[in-house]
Amino acid sequence: MPELPEVETTRRGLAPHVEGRRVVHVTLRRPDLRWPIPPEVSNLLPGQRIEAVRRRAKYLLVDTAAGSALLHLGMSGSLRVLPADTPLRAHDHVDLALDSGRVLRFNDPRRFGCLLWQPVGETHELLAGLGPEPLSDAFDGDYLYRLSRGRRASVKTFLMDQAVVVGVGNIYAAEALFTAGISPLREAGKVSRERYRRLAEAVKAILGYAITRGGTTLRDFISPDGAPGYFEQELAVYGRDGQPCRACGRALRLSTVGQRASVWCPACQR
Fold it and tell me: 0.85 cut: is pTM over it?
């Protein structure tokens, strides 16, 4: 599933082409994706000017004065801005036709993505209760330390909890824990303030760098310009079980943490 860097890469690719443009009409080629597409998308979006394209966690919001279209790419979805006469491909489910003569097209082969609606002044239930953005000032080591006291869950499970911090999925949690030298198996409540400081810094650095590299190519993910992400080529531990640690040379170990595969170095991570 695309993680925060992939979604942010998509947002940055779309914004220059759609912000300030007016939606001429909406074409829905099916009534639902993961959930039914609400009627507001067809009834309220046409005629509206797109004020901004924002990201919250792994969701994209296309803001207008009438409300916001809320999109999630699911497992294999993609959003591209294309000439209006571009031939349709299989699974091209939604077009937002723009006054530029181009369309914002949503393709989703597995239909695990969504297109929903957030009214002005409201927060959609999918966004309610989310933790801070990991690249914001609200996320730091002190915050993690305070929230983790008394937590018996593993530190990796804790870090991937969207109520703690959004957008840190399996790939980037594994990489950040390696960089910080923390075992993913350690109880969250037993990690020191100083080690949480290093972990927060690692999360920020790794996510920021992954964004500059276009994200990590997994399965069907591609950025809006069709280019793959390149961060996968630089992963230290994720997907490398049994291979030598890039730091110490010891074989990396595969464990199951919170029902997710987790690769880590038993020598470098304690």
Answer: yes
Q: Check 2, 134, 184, 224 and give the catalytic one.
A: 2
Q: Which of 22, 34, 197, 260 is catalytic?
A: 260
**Is residue 6 flagged as an active site residue?**
no
CB 106 within 8 A of CB 113: yes
CA–CA separation, 269 and 251 (whole Å)? 13
Average pLDDT over residues 4-12: 91
Which whole number is the average pLDDT over 222-230? 47
Distance CA 58, CA 167 (A): 6
Active site residue: 11, 55, 56, 58, which one?
Answer: 58
CA dist list (Å): 219 to 1, 86, 222, 232: 8, 24, 9, 12
Which residue is catalytic, options 3, 6, 8, 232? 3
Closest CA to 28 of 37, 20, 19: 37
Task: Tell me if residue 2 is catalytic.
Answer: yes
Task: Based on the residue annotation, tell me whether 3 is a catalytic residue of this protein.
Answer: yes
